[in-house]
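queue> pop job 88
queue> type: inverse folding (structure -> sequence)
queue> payload:
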């Protein structure tokens, strides 16, 4: 492991590891701070980053393994299509923020030019350069997998329980206050594709898995020191290798930040600066909705002013290349309610599902993460973190003794009296 080195950017970037192996990145220009962070991510976590990108693109069968299990993973990510508009989202960055994001990518790519992980070299894989669009892609994966995804799984689990014959009084115990509009007959008629709970698995399996984190902040008048006190325990597995988090210290002029980052993302995700400390846990916002679509001949039914209309789905065909095996061609059908779980040419009722962060998001989150380095107080930090497009609970404290809480995330705008938990008729 390199203990100290200098990277040339707009100026010199000095990188020194402390006795814990944490890199300290020192630069006179802000872009070089992020160039150094990207280089450290590329030096220490290239395999982690590249594997995440391969899977998020739905290319595991082409590059890693042609098993049926990997094909299922590729289908999962191709269905989500998180990278579909990632380049358009990257272009939305303000010029100053784009300079910082591109400097971060430059740091990663310099590390990859120096060394590609041997595990990937054995596979004959030569990665294409890391781009701002890749950071947008990973930001969506981080906000969805096992986080926002769990809410969608809970809603899908309800449908499966109805179809399995679980009595309504038991459902009311599990989902108290959420089932006023439950149409059991309608949900019985829905044709589900992939199931959360396979038919062979007993119902006492705990699905979906619960996750939890905690953070708190204490005002100065309640602390022995007379200063605000903040603590954060984000429960994203620290016991895996490599760990999800990557610690770093960045110094830019007189500004510093002791931070936990995620490889592949340029953001200073949690940490503290000269003036501000902030921590995050997941909000469990309900940002996923499903609708029941009545389908036939590739179309979905709509009722408008008493007239029945049939509108065509948008078809998106993906070709999944497989090592040593024939390509798999998969077609997904979409409308404004999301991606259909089924084939609309086979008449019936299917679910269409959409996550609020699946498209049109990412640029504002990156801009907020860049701005936090300069935030002088809690009020400014709250304003910035409130622009993050995925769902988090932020707690903040500043040098003046102010404390605050800020929730982030894109909450779907729903019709009156619908909370989004139950799938409603799409027509």
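queue> result:
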């Amino acid at each position: 492991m390199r203990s100290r080195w200098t990277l040339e950017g707009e100026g010199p970037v000095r990188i020194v590891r402390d006795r814990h192996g944490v890199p300290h990145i020192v630069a006179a220009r802000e872009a070089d701070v992020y160039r150094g962070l990207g280089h450290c991510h590329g030096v220490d976590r290239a395999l982690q980053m590249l594997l995440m990108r391969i899977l998020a693109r739905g290319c595991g069968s082409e590059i890693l393994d042609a098993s049926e299990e990997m094909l299922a993973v590729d289908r999962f990510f191709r269905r989500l299509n998180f990278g579909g508009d990632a380049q358009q989202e990257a272009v939305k960055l303000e010029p100053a923020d784009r300079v910082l994001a591109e400097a971060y990518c430059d740091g990663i790519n310099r590390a990859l030019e120096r060394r590609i992980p041997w595990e990937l070299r054995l596979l004959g894989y030569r990665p294409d350069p890391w781009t701002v669009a890749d950071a947008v892609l990973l930001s969506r994966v981080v906000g969805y997998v096992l986080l926002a995804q769990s809410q969608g799984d809970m809603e899908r689990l309800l449908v499966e329980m109805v179809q399995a014959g679980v009595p309504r009084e038991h459902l009311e115990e599990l989902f108290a206050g959420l089932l006023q509009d439950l149409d059991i007959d309608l949900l019985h008629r829905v044709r589900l594709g992939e199931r959360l709970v396979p038919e062979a698995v007993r119902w006492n399996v705990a699905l979906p898995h619960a996750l939890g984190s905690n953070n708190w902040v204490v005002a100065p008048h309640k602390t022995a020191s007379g200063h605000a006190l903040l603590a954060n325990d984000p429960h994203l597995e620290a016991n895996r290798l490599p760990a999800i988090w990557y610690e770093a210290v960045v110094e830019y002029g007189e500004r510093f930040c002791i931070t936990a980052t995620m490889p592949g993302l340029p953001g200073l995700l949690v940490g503290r600066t000269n003036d501000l400390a902030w921590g995050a846990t997941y909000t469990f916002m309900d940002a996923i909705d499903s609708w029941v679509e009545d389908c036939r001949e590739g179309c979905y039914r709509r009722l408008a002013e008493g007239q029945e209309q049939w509108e065509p789905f948008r078809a998106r065909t993906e070709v999944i290349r497989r090592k040593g095996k024939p390509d798999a061609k998969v077609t997904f059908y979409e409308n404004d309610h999301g991606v259909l779980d089924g084939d609309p040419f086979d008449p019936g009722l299917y679910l269409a599902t959409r996550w609020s962060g699946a498209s049109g998001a990412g640029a504002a989150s990156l801009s907020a993460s860049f701005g936090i380095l300069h935030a002088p107080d809690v009020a400014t930090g709250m304003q910035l973190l409130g622009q993050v497009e995925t769902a988090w609970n932020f707690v903040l404290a500043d040098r003046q003794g102010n404390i605050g809480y800020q929730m982030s995330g894109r909450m779907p705008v729903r019709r009156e009296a619908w909370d989004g938990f139950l799938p409603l008729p799409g027509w």
